[in-house]
Amino acid sequence: MRVAILAHEQFPERAKTAVGVLRYGDQEVVAVLDRDRAGDSIREYLDEPRIPNAPIVAGVEDAPEFDALIVGIAPIGGGFEASWRPDVRGALERGCDVYAGLHYQLNEDEEFARLAAEHDCELVDVRDPPDDLTVSEARAREVDATVVLAVGTDCSTGKMTAAMELREAAREEGLDAAVVPTGQTGILIEGWGIAVDRTISDFTAGAVERMVQAVGDHDVVFVEGQGALAHPAYSAVTAGIVHGSMPEKLVLCHEAGRQAVHGYESFSLPPAEEYAALYERFADPVAESAVAAGMLNTSGIDDDQQAREAIESYAEAIDAPATDPIRFEASAVLDTLV
Amino acid sequence: MRVAILAHEQFPERAKTAVGVLRYGDQEVVAVLDRDRAGDSIREYLDEPRIPNAPIVAGVEDAPEFDALIVGIAPIGGGFEASWRPDVRGALERGCDVYAGLHYQLNEDEEFARLAAEHDCELVDVRDPPDDLTVSEARAREVDATVVLAVGTDCSTGKMTAAMELREAAREEGLDAAVVPTGQTGILIEGWGIAVDRTISDFTAGAVERMVQAVGDHDVVFVEGQGALAHPAYSAVTAGIVHGSMPEKLVLCHEAGRQAVHGYESFSLPPAEEYAALYERFADPVAESAVAAGMLNTSGIDDDQQAREAIESYAEAIDAPATDPIRFEASAVLDTLV
């Protein structure tokens, strides 16, 4: 499938769905739409061999031929920005499907629904959960696999990345490893999953339990976490994932230097050691669990040596090995997890 | 409004909505429907002056004339039991409205919707949340009121009762006190509110924030909690309420003698002192909060002296004054809360 990815004004730092699909998806990306960076190319921002060097364009009219448009950004609250409308409209008029993972449902947008019908293409809201979810029975531990949950100190700290990179590292070691995708980017990459932040809160843990059971027996299952346990707005989602997945081990993801909750800057992040202890203490009554590794996003640090030092002090704080799975290797922490 | 309350096979111990409406609602209750206790009367089970002594009957056909049927029980999972169908059908055929707080939506039941239309009566699903909820902005603390949140060690430990009894006790002291109802029973009693366990998990904290803001400035606001922070299935709901309401004080509700999670008996409840510390530690990064009082449901203890002793040892465990607001007085713990 040839895709264009919409990431206006936010590529790449605040376009985590776009970057996730570029890095881990098996779609062929022909362009990124970002009107602020039109004329540049993807590799100028993300210099990784696995990432294709497609052009960045101002809108669908400048993109090479493609089969589907993916909305690759998600603002706080999951709304649809009016300024994206011409591109979605243009994609549908060209007969292309549109994928999005917003709270705003494209299928419920009158204009988009009409255009999709007219041009015989599909609107795919990957955040729309199944309607037969139920309460958790607290049986995720019965799966024959080491369940490892990637949690974070905040949103956008690399939980999805941790799960994807750890699966790859585990497979390279010859292990049978799987991922449970719990958010729109993971679902777009994997082609299945439930956006747990969109589930009814009574069923949030149950949705995660269902996915852990569905993915079934493996050597190791890496569950993508969401939100953060001390997040003022999203802790409900996180709580449901921690108790629903009943992990044996936790990987705590953090962005180097981040000291306050993104978008809620008056709320300080607890120190890493306290945050790790909070996750363990919260998990324990349902499923005893330990922070066994850390992932530190050091993309904001220019110097490799400084990045290594930041990782070392993070590892010391959480009392577990740590790495930056993008700058360095996820495999550095695999031994403590499997 | 004259109401009959459906509570088949579960009155009164496992019919908390029925008991809540009987105790705190301003509806005129003309009958309770419980086929196992037909021929008895309410006071044989609940001997409180404020509770009306209406008959218990086997079904709507035996009930005195009424205006609305309230479904007064809620099984784990919030489903609709087939054995309740004749009573709901019968109520609608008599031209009565039907109120329910189930996950199962009466309005989406074809037969009920048709009967309601035919007989010009209403199906009221009080658990149906507004469809314009958003993420929390973490601003509940800006309300000019002492916000007190009733939390629990499990479901059905008396959180709603605590909120209602504390409001009454505060008003008797001359304080301007309000309740924020977060569950179906509270909503049925108060005539407003949002069933937070039915909200999209990303918006759970936001729904609670909205209610705290809506109830506005008072001397003290008692927020009804839901679920429990160490509950394998419902912790997402609880997490959203704790962070969304940003309480200054917590009241920890517990049922004397309960040692395991109801319905999840392989999961032990953490000891009360650990549970109190878990709530505080979880709340702190968003809103510093202290367990300032305890409520112990001693209805399973026959002897008053033994009940007092149980309350004393519970108070010692959580290091805060405690009471049983039904058997004794909620006012016993009011001073530490307001």
In short, what is this structure?
Two copies of one chain form a homodimer. With 338 residues, chain A is an alpha/beta fold. Helix content of chain A is 29%, strand content 19%.
Description:
- Chain A contains 9 helices and 14 strands.
- The first copy, chain A, is of the alpha/beta class.
- Chain A has 2 domains: 2-125, NAD(P)-binding Rossmann-like Domain (Rossmann fold, 3-Layer(aba) Sandwich), CATH 3.40.50; 140-336, Rossmann fold.
- Chain A has a 6-stranded parallel β-sheet, sandwiched between helices. In chain A, strands 8-9-7-10-13-14 form a 6-stranded parallel β-sheet, sandwiched between helices.
- In chain A, a hairpin with a 2-residue loop joins β11 and β12.
- In chain A, α1 (16-24) packs parallel to α5.
- Chain A is globular.
- The two termini of chain A are 34 Å apart.
- The interface between A and B is large, with 44 and 44 residues.
Walk me through the topology:
The structure is a homodimer of 338-residue chains.
Chain A: E1 2-6, H1 16-24, E2 28-33, E3 56-57, E4 68-71, H2 85-93, E5 97-100, H3 110-118, E6 123-125, E7 146-152, H4 159-172, E8 177-180, H5 184-190, H6 204-215, E9 220-224, H7 235-245, E10 249-255, E11 260-261, E12 264-268, H8 272-283, E13 290-297, H9 304-318, E14 322-323
Parallel strand pairs in A: 1-2, 1-4, 2-3, 4-5, 5-6, 7-9, 7-10, 8-9, 10-13, 13-14
Antiparallel strand pairs in A: 11-12
Helix pairs in contact in A: 1-5, 2-3, 6-7
Domain D-glutamate N-acetyltransferase-like N-terminal (chains A, B): 36-129
Domain D-glutamate N-acetyltransferase-like C-terminal (chains A, B): 135-333
Protein name (chains A, B): DUF1611 domain-containing protein
